[in-house]
Input
Amino acid sequence: MTAEQLARTERILEKFGSRGEAMLIAILQEVQKEEHYLPKEILESISRKMDIPMTRIYAIATFYKSFSLKPKGRHQIKVCTGTACHIKGAAKNRDEIMRRLGISDGEVTADRNFSVETVNCLGTCALAPVIVVDDQYYDGITPAKIKRTLEHYSEDHDE
Output
């Protein structure tokens, strides 16, 4: 664990105080927000400092789908492959995203700027095909629009 990660973890634990396991989910949510996943070293630190067994922490971290034990990108792309999106070209969009980023489904780019995953449905069938980057929905997406969409989230265009 880096000094920066240690400092962030300490800050998160201080924020929630020593309220025990009752605050564990909130603590894990904060770590996930900061790190974009739950690093093993941080979970071990939380286990020691809160006196909670690692088995309990892993049980919670693996139960909730919102938690990830694998690194995710700073910008997380979800490609809908549900029926409506599939019919309207989701596979071509997915392939174009993966080609441009040089990664496969479920992977993260080397710079950890992007990760991509296919999902079964985003519940926006009338807008198909759809991708989501972070919490921003892009409807009617086509392979031709992928480059511009990804550039919006590149390092050069961030805040």
